């Protein structure tokens, strides 16, 4: 399966956010496409990202590495990277790896955009 990516800008109480909507599988084959998108956004000055993973069917360790790398990039600019996910099979991966302590995970894009912490 392929990876689909789209971005849009949204304003909320916490300021402007760039939402990256991801669909399909984030694995060793498709993760570089997501990495390129995150690097490009940060290079263009988007430091507050919301990664909407509602359409993600599969996530492997390579995909997790890309998300952690994205988080490091935005934090270097005092930014943030929030995840949107309420699929139990994907959330379980974040819990098992301890990344629920690293990433703010929200149940909707609206909730992630509204978050000010």
UniProtKB/TrEMBL annotation:
Family statement: Belongs to the anti-sigma-factor antagonist family.
GN (gene name): bldG
CDD domains, per the entry: STAS_anti-anti-sigma_factors
Domain of life: Bacteria
Residue span(s) of domain STAS: 19-116
Organism: Streptomyces enissocaesilis
Protein name: Anti-sigma factor antagonist
PROSITE patterns per the UniProt record, alphabetical: STAS (PS50801)
PANTHER family per the UniProt record, alphabetical: ANTI-SIGMA FACTOR ANTAGONIST TM_1081-RELATED (PTHR33495:SF2), ANTI-SIGMA FACTOR ANTAGONIST TM_1081-RELATED-RELATED (PTHR33495)
Pfam short name (any one): STAS
């Amino acid at each position: 399966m392929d990876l689909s990516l789209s971005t849009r800008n949204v304003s909320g109480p916490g300021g402007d956010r760039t939402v990256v909507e991801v669909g399909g599988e984030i694995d060793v084959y498709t993760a570089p496409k997501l990495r390129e998108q995150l690097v490009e956004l940060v290079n263009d000055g988007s430091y507050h990202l919301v990664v909407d993973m509602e359409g993600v069917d599969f996530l492997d360790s390579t995909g997790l590495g890309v998300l952690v790398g994205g988080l490091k990039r935005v934090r270097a600019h005092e930014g943030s990277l929030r995840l949107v996910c309420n699929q139990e099979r994907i959330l379980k991966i974040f819990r098992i790896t301890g990344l629920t302590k690293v990433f703010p995970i929200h149940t909707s894009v609206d909730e992630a955009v509204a978050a000010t912490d």
